[in-house]
Every structure is written in structure tokens, then in C-alpha cells.
Amino acid sequence: MALSADPGFKLRTVDTRSYPEVKIRFHSNNNIEPKGFVLSEQLDLNARLTESLRFEAFESKNPVHLYISIPSYTNAEDRRWIIQLANQLVKISENTGGNSKLQIQSDENKHSYERIRSQTLDISFPFPKEPVPIYPIRNWENFLDGIPKNQSTEDHILVFVSFAPEWQDRFEIPELAKRIKDKNLQLIVLAPSSLEATKLASYANGRHYNISKSDSYADLFSYLRALGLPDYELVYISPWKLSKWKSNFISGSLNSVDQGIHFEFQYELSFFRSLYLKLSDPLFFFPVSLFLIFLCLAALYYLRGYEEPSQKLISIENSEPDFSQRKEELQVYDRMYGETMERAARDREIALAIAEKATLPGTSYSYAVLMQRDGNHNSEQFQLQFEEVTIGSWESNHLVLDDPTVAGLHAKIKNRKGKYILFDCVSKTGVYLNGKKLLRPKVLHNLDEIQIGKTTLSFRGR
Predict the structure, then answer these.
(1) How confident is the model over 39-86, as pLDDT tens digits?
(2) Contact, 257 vs 36, CB < 8 A?
(3) Comparing 236 with 324, which gets the higher pLDDT?
(4) Residue 45 domain-assigned (yes or no)
(5) In 10 A of CB 368, how many CB atoms?
(6) Contact 404/390 with Cβ under 8 angstroms?
(7) Contact 88/109 with Cβ under 8 angstroms?
(8) Which of 13, 22, 123, 194 registers the highest number of CB atoms within 10 A of its CB?
(9) What total number of domains does the chain contain?
(10) Do 244 and 215 sit in the same domain of this protein?
(11) Does a structural domain hold residue 447?
(12) What Cα–Cα distance (Å) separates residue 288 from each residue in 16, 244, 459?
């Protein structure tokens, strides 16, 4: 963290991963001469000077992200001037690799343009004409709601442009300034010289440029271009050479009398911070992760077939009664339904066995239907034209019953040489034939009543 800094100085990061070597990345709006600097570190009440330090300049520029709020226009000249101002601001952001968002101020409507480009800000730009906003601060508050909090050390800048010398909602200035600082945004106010504009810039630790002075634009553009200049990195060896695994707060001070620079900062050494920096290092994290994964796989492979002998003997002793009990259940099920769960999956029930061994009792029909009646005594016919007709609540059945008490596949009727056999497909609520529960497959006769859930089906054959 930065304790204090001259205007134009901004602390980016403090890197203590290679402590006692400390790397401090900062930004300066002016060129720095590496000579004439004095760096000291203070621990508690004691201070020591560093033996040597060096500056390294980064090659890449810093992205400057702009959020621009501009008023509407009253005539063609104002329109051209405002578009030209927005074009120049967006172009500066583009040159640094940043993004821009544009808002047109209005008390009633909302006009905002995400990631706007300077090429679109020309004479053909669809600039909406709105009345002069009476409450500019409320406009800026609405604009601020759509801007995410700046979680990085990059420059995210609000640019508020206003033509009004006085703001009727000036009593909301402290709250707006607080919200700007909470979102970690820098503020630039381009407005006539007034008490309101000065207050807003002061409360938000921002800058105010007089819109009526031509020198203000040169200063504004010069300041924004300087923000996009490359950062510097200060590298030095800490004179204290403390342990990274113990908690200490170290304060540093960088001074240059010749260049008039004073910069104070502070960093922390602790066990948890050192552990976090160690784990976040790719050269340490990935090898350790691969080793742990390999160790887990080896443990799983070793324990794959491991069983304790005592448990194995117990399972062998207890397996015989369980198997015999299961065998008796399957025999009872086979006697009642003529099929087991294994054979039911292959759809070869008792009807196929009966057809192969003996002649089925009952009457043969060349034509058969099921009559379904509702509460109004209306009946609906369903022709049994397939060799097997399934009944249930699933849409894939031949006869679908809209009843919550009916299973997905509840029952089925098979046609064997003109004789129709009714089966219960192991449903929970069962199937009733002429008022009696169906315990085994039976051949249907004319006028038989079939009860499935709350639905009554009447069998008709001729």
C-alpha cells in the first residue's frame, strides 16, 4: 500500500516473493532519472538505508479506461464540438489499449454506448438531442451504477462534462464522491469554474479543469497521455533481511531532492502471505500438484483390491442364507407371475411358453377393442390391432392413461392366435380383472372389466 505520494506517482504492486529482494512497480507521469535517489526502510522506530537500488522501465504501455459522461447539444456548433471532444478522449484510451464507455446526459432517457470506438464518433454519429439536464449529479449516479468496481491497479477514470455553472442537486455531492472512491475510480470534472465542481473534485480526490479555458484541454490531454506511459520497477535489497515466515510491517521511503520526488509505501511479511505467494508461483504449484495427483493415483491402485481377511470370512458365511432366501423369493415370483425379472427384460413371458406347450383356454376373437368410459358415461374405443399392446402413463405406450396412480408401464395385452392375454407388469397398485386382483396372466373374455388405477376398461371381442 502507498502511504503518501507526490502528484503523478501511483503504486502498482509490491513483490516480495524473492525477499530480501523487493520489487516495487509504480507509475510516474514524468520521466525519472535513476541518479540522486535515497531509499530507506523503517522497522518499528528504527530506519536503515539501502546499499543499492536500480530502476527498470517496462516496455508495454498502461491501459487507460475512460467512462465519459457528456451533455447533449443545442445547435450544430455545440454538437460538432462535443463529438470532437469525445473523439479525442476515446482516441487517447485506444492508444493505450484501454476501453471507453460513453453516456449522453438526460433527465428522462438513458443513452449509453459500451466499448465505443473513435471511428464512430464523427459527423454521422447518431447523437440524440436531449434537453439540458436539470440534475446532472443524478445523471452521473445512474451512470455510476452501470460501472463495475475497479479491482485492479489499472487506471479507470470517470470524465464528467457539464456546461452548467450551478447544479440544483449539489446537496448530493458528498454521497456521489463517496461512491466514486468506493469503486476505486479516478475523477476528472470538466465544467465551468464553480464551487460545486471544485467540491466534487476535492471530495473524490479528483481533478477539475475549467471548460471555458483553452489551456485546460492541453493539460487534460497531457495528463491522460502520461497515464498511458510505461511503468517503472524499483528493485533493491532490503537492509533488514528478515524472515519471510514471521509477521512484520516494513515502511519504505523514496526521495530525490534534485527531482523533487517523495514517495512512501508499506509492505507486510507474514507466514500466510509467504505461503500464498509460494503456492501462486507456477514453478512451485504445478510440480507439487502433479506429485500429489500421482501419489493419490498410486494409493488408489494399491488399495484397489485390498480386503481384510475377517470381513471376507464373514461375507462367505452370510452369503449362503442370503442366496437361499433370494432363491425362494424368485421361485414364488415365478409361480405367481410365470416370469422372473431377468426374463422380463427380454420380453419372453408366460404367454410364449403356453403357446409352445399347450392350447390356451378361452374363446378366439378376430376383432377386439377396449372401451374406456369417463364420468359423463361417454365411451372411447381403442382397437387391439397389435400382437402386444402396452398400457401405462408413459407416452411411449399404445394406450396412455393420464392417472398419477398408474405406473409408466402398468399392464399389457398380448394376442396369441386370437386369444388376448392380460399381464400385470409388476405394478405397485396392481391390475384388477372383474373385481379381483390379477395374480397371474389370464385370457380375456367378452365383457370382462379391467380396473387399472382409477380407469375402468371394458373388453369387447367378436
Answers:
(1) 999 998 898 998 888 888 888 888 999 999 999 998 989 999 999 999
(2) yes
(3) 236
(4) yes
(5) 21
(6) no
(7) no
(8) 22
(9) 3
(10) no
(11) yes
(12) 21, 21, 73
222 and 228 in contact (C-beta within 8 Å)? no
> C-alpha grid cell for residue 210?
475549467
Say if residue 188 is exposed, middle or buried (CB neighbours under 10 Å; 0-12, 13-18, 19+): buried
The number of residues making up the chain comes to 462
Q: For residues 16 and 89, state if they share a domain.
A: no
Burial 411-422 (b: 16+ CB within 10 A, else e): bbbbbbeebbbb
Q: Where does a domain end: 243, 274, 305?
A: 274
Whether residue 342 lies inside any domain: the answer is no
Global pTM value: 0.57
Question: Which CATH number goes with the domain that contains 96?
Answer: 3.40.50.410
pLDDT band, residue 31 (cuts 50/70/90): confident
- Give the three-state DSSP class for 184: coil
Q: What is the DSSP string of 288-341?
A: HHHHHHHHHHHHHHHTTT---HHHHHHHHHHHHHHHHHHHHHHHHHHHHHS--H
Instruction: State the residue range of the domain holding 90.
Output: 64-228
What's the first-to-final CA gap in the chain, in angstroms?
95
> In which residue are the cell numbers 480526490 written?
205
User: Cα(128)–Cα(112) distance, rounded to whole angstroms?
Assistant: 11
Residues 102 and 163 in one domain: yes
Helix ranges restricted to H, 183-233: 195-203, 214-227
Specify the residue for cell string 492508444: 95
Position of cell 503518501?
4
Distance between CA atoms of 427 and 405, rounded to whole angstroms?
Answer: 10
